[in-house]
Amino acid sequence: MAQTTSRDFCLWLDAFLGDAGRALTAGETAIVRGRLCEVFLHEIDPAMGDAAHQASLQRIHRAVR
């Protein structure tokens, strides 16, 4: 099985949440939050942006948890 990329996951999540016929369970919500935290951790490169921009991204990241 191929590993899912962060982009693939976000596209899947967007489609999944767009399906009005089904809501996330508490367990699924926890899994999605964990995966989104991984996306932030691995996709937000510290080399991108100045210290103020990185601080802003980290505030967003911490609020997701």
Distance between the termini: 28 Å
Radius of gyration: 14 Å
Portion in helices:
55-70%
Main beta-sheet strand count, sense and barrel state:
none
Uncertain stretches: none
Mean pLDDT: 76
**Helix count from the secondary structure assignment:** 3
**Bulk shape:** elongated
Strand runs, count? 0
Residue fraction in strands: under 5%
Assign the structural class, choosing from mainly alpha, mainly beta, alpha/beta, alpha+beta, or little secondary structure.
mainly alpha
Order of secondary-structure elements: HHH
Structural summary, described in words:
- The structure is a single chain.
- With 65 residues, the protein is mainly alpha-helical.
- It is built from three helices and no strands.
- The chain has helices at 6-18, 26-43, 51-64.
- The chain is elongated, with a radius of gyration of 14 Å.
- The N and C termini lie far apart (28 Å).
- 0% of the residues are buried.
Write out key terms for the chains shown:
mainly alpha; 69% helix; 65 residues
Short description:
With 65 residues, the protein is mostly helical.
Protein topology:
Elements lengths: L5 H13 L7 H18 L7 H14 L1
Helix pairs in contact: 1-2
